[in-house]
């Protein structure tokens, strides 16, 4: 049964109580009296609960699945961090028993990675902070205080090099966590990794992750030359990091370098690695899709699925390749079997990621529509999505895609413009909002649509 948070402790009269019960009540009363001090101590911690992560519920589900897809082998050096973040995610979702389980696994993972059997080491600071917060959410204030006591002992034993700086282990874990969130937080992650490296320069995985944070922060724009050079250096120091190698090769291809032979060689290496979102398979498939051959990308993804037929992440990657072939290679004829395979994969992947497949459901609706496989199914999927209880970012994405569907498939320009307006009206920065605004600006500038006046007025008042 899932643990429930408790908000108060009820103290009964002392009469006929055993000395043991009396001692328990004394502890509870002491904790209640010290509640403001405890909460102040908790707020001052450096841990997931105080890092201003503020994910939405849909982001929490996506993050839960992303962390699970890293696996326990390729993500081994980050296993403690993975479990710590999973603990936080499950707590935010209200799954407190699971949260406790993950935080316990985090502590054990740190012991294994650092080859120690003790509860001693600066790498446990964030974990103790998380445990203190989780106990507080459960109403177990004595246990929360006990976790704080352990944490304060570690901080005294392992102070940072300078008083105004975090310990490098805390810096690195904060950086790794921030990488999983917004563009601004990815840039902040790069800064925290840099600070950790300055204090402890011998950690190769920190150096690689510092570069990856920069790459992720600039993934929607041309990669800067200095970042590409940093990738090259990091790859040399971390030759077994095939995720970094795949991203570097993809960046080289995007800069105009011929990479086909290197990509094929790297593909052979990636296929022999344990299955993981850190294996490099996804950026490699993107490289193949754009710079080598989409058919080779599909073959590579199918070979990976054949080797690991029960792995959902590989099926997700394969589905992505088929979508690219269908949606962006429209000048090539589509075989019925290819469309069938794409739809079959998408249906299965959606069932394997039931709480984090909003974008995949939109993609499946688009495949139905673009291939004329089933316009009825496309309309039914879109109607169901539009009727759903959506967060602003989800609604914005849906409205942008549906507007394009109305324009290209339904030939309903009026409603298409209305949905682009709905997407643009959601004041959340994203590529979908930017795209809808750009389309509205182009339509308004042509002055050929009967809604041009309405569009111009809308754009004038848009914030």
UniProtKB/TrEMBL annotation:
Keywords: Repeat, TPR repeat. GO terms for biological process: defense response to virus. Residues 1-26 are annotated as: Disordered. SUPFAM superfamilies: HCP-like (SSF81901), TPR-like (SSF48452). The keyword Repeat applies. The keyword Repeat applies. Residues 13-26 have a biased composition (Basic residues). One of its GO terms (cellular component) is cytosol. Belongs to the IFIT family. This is Interferon-induced protein with tetratricopeptide repeats 2-like. It comes from Betta splendens (Siamese fighting fish).
């Amino acid at each position: 049964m899932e643990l429930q948070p408790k908000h108060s402790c009820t103290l009964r009269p002392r009469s006929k109580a055993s000395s043991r019960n009396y001692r328990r009540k004394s502890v509870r009363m002491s904790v209640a009296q010290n509640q403001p001090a405890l909460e102040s101590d908790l707020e001052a911690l450096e841990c997931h609960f105080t890092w201003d992560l503020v994910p939405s519920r849909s982001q929490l589900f996506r993050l839960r699945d992303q962390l699970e897809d890293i696996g326990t082998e390729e993500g081994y050096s980050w296993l403690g961090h993975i479990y710590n973040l999973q603990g936080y995610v499950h707590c935010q979702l209200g799954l407190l028993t699971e949260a406790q389980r993950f935080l316990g696994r985090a502590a054990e993972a740190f012991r294994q990675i650092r080859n120690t059997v003790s509860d001693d080491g600066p790498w446990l600071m964030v974990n103790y902070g998380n445990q203190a917060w989780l106990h507080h959410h459960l109403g177990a204030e004595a246990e929360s205080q006990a976790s704080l006591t352990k944490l304060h002992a570690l901080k005294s034993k392992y102070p940072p090099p300078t008083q105004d700086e975090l310990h490098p282990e805390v810096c690195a874990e904060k950086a790794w966590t921030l990488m999983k969130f917004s563009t601004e937080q990815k840039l902040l992650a790069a800064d925290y990794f840099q600070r950790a490296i300055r204090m402890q320069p011998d950690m190769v995985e920190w150096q690689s992750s510092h570069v990856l944070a920069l790459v992720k922060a600039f993934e929607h724009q041309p990669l800067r030359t200095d970042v590409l050079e940093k990738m090259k250096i990091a790859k040399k120091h971390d030759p077994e990091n095939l995720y970094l190698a795949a991203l570097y090769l993809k960046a080289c291809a995007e800069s105009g370098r011929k990479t086909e032979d290197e990509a094929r060689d790297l593909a052979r290496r990636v296929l022999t690695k344990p299955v993981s979102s850190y294996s490099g398979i996804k950026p490699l498939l993107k490289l193949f899709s754009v710079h080598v051959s989409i058919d080779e990308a599909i073959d590579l993804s199918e070979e990976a699925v054949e080797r690991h037929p029960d792995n959902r992440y590989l099926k997700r990657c394969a589905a992505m390749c088929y979508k690219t072939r269908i949606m962006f290679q429209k000048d090539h004829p589509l075989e019925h079997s290819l469309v069938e395979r794409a739809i079959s994969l998408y249906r299965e992947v959606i069932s394997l990621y039931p709480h984090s497949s909003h974008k995949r459901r939109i993609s499946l609706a688009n495949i139905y529509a673009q291939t004329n496989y089933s316009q009825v199914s496309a309309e039914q999927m879109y109607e169901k999505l539009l009727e759903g209880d959506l967060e602003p970012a989800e609604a914005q994405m849906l409205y942008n895609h549906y507007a394009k569907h109305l324009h290209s498939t339904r030939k309903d320009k009026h409603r298409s413009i209305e949905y682009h307006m709905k997407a643009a009206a959601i004041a959340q920065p994203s590529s979908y909002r930017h795209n809808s605004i750009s389309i509205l600006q182009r339509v308004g500038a042509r002055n050929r649509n009967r809604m041009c006046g309405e569009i111009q007025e809308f754009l004038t008042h848009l914030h």
